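Dear all,

This email documents one entry for the complex benchmark we are building for the journal club exercise. For each entry we list the sequence lines for every component of the assembly. Then comes the predicted three-dimensional structure of the complex as a token string, followed by one or two observations. Please use this as the template for your own entries, and keep the labels exactly as they appear.
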Amino acid sequence: MHSDVPPHASAVTIALPAWAESAVDWERRYDSDEDKMRVAIALSRINVEQETGGPFGAAIFASETGRLVSIGVNSVVRLNSSTLHAEVVALMLAEQQLASFSLAAPGLSPHELVTSCEPCAMCLGATLWSGVKRLVCGATRSDATRLGFDEGPVFKASYEYLAHAGIEIAREVCRAEARAALELYRSRAGPIYNP
Amino acid sequence: MHSDVPPHASAVTIALPAWAESAVDWERRYDSDEDKMRVAIALSRINVEQETGGPFGAAIFASETGRLVSIGVNSVVRLNSSTLHAEVVALMLAEQQLASFSLAAPGLSPHELVTSCEPCAMCLGATLWSGVKRLVCGATRSDATRLGFDEGPVFKASYEYLAHAGIEIAREVCRAEARAALELYRSRAGPIYNP
């Protein structure tokens, strides 16, 4: 009777691209913001080179130990999912790894989100809900919008909201290196999925 | 040498709670905003009753046919994932179902996101990236914050940004019914995971 009704999806699996896990050093200690940012930037660049997504990478670190907890790369086109920006992927994997919906849960040491480009409106909200205590950004909103990517409704007051919630924010860390991955994407004419 | 290094998560699976798929009628045509909103509200209420998450439900509909494409319920605590608000779950499943990262891709008819409560900052951004043409909300931000939930950096300008991008927005649809699910959650002292 209802043969025209398609089956509906009831689950979705989010996985990193095959190259990602071996692209980073899980065992070293990352001390400086620059050390950490270069992980995010490397992920953004390889994501372009491997044609597995947009020019954005992110990573979660445990602040006290400098250990890498999770990584993320933009996976919108690869996984057909508009919400899978690098930051969201990294946060999901960190929370899965720690079996906690908050990276600030009792018993956990502080965590930080390091992203190769300033977060869009969605990812800025996700940052707030994740419980990270620091947000470290590489390229700027203007670097991304110059490529044609939209960042959505992010305002000065949005960053103030996060700061007021106790999140320390560092911007323009290794900005030139981060921007180079964006430029690489442009030079290869990668798809702008949120024009 | 590195036995203290934990394994890292490389994938995460997001699934609806067991009750969800059979809680809605996938085969009927939903015509009015109220018809559609009652799906989202029912999901929010059952999510509380079944203790599978916060008091929030959402659904994606194809505007022209009135058909239900996907559903979502708040799954933050159940799946240990701070980004899994009802709207994000519904959008992920709709995009998976249609094998498209945009619900406005060529060849697709318009879609709308119906949510039992006005979206937080993250979900408002996700709405923008999803390609939905309409956003229909039940309970208001103030209804949610009265419970102790934070909605994040959402401003008047945030809604204007979405409107400017061509998204039609309807608010306070069946607000009293939507709010009742929030009140049910409060009366049962459900956890406020983003205080």
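Observations: Chain B is about 35% helix and 15% strand. Chain B touches chain A through 60 residues (CB under 8 Å).
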